[in-house]
Write a structure and sequence with these properties.
By secondary structure, the chain is α+β, with helices and mostly antiparallel strands. The chain is built from one helix and two strands. It has a two-stranded antiparallel sheet. It is globular and about 35 Å long.
Length: 59
C-alpha cells in the first residue's frame, strides 16, 4: 500500500478506520476526538500520545 498523500511513497501505517495508507511524513490520527475501535493497535495514536507527553514535559 502507498501513502494517500504521496502515491509514490510506501505507507508505513494503514488506518484501519478509514482504510488509508500513511507514510512517515503524513502519519497522524485523522480523527483523534472521536471513538475508534482500532485505537489500541494504532501507530498514529501512539505517536500522538508520545508527542503530547513530550510537549507536556517541555512546558
Amino acid at each position: 500500500m502507498f501513502c494517500t498523500n504521496h502515491p509514490d511513497t510506501r505507507a508505513i501505517s494503514v488506518c484501519q478506520k478509514f482504510g488509508i495508507g500513511q507514510c512517515e511524513e503524513c502519519i497522524a490520527c485523522k480523527d483523534p476526538n472521536l471513538y475508534c475501535k482500532f485505537r489500541d493497535h494504532c501507530i498514529a495514536w501512539e505517536l500522538l500520545k508520545e508527542n503530547n507527553i513530550v510537549q507536556g514535559e517541555r512546558r
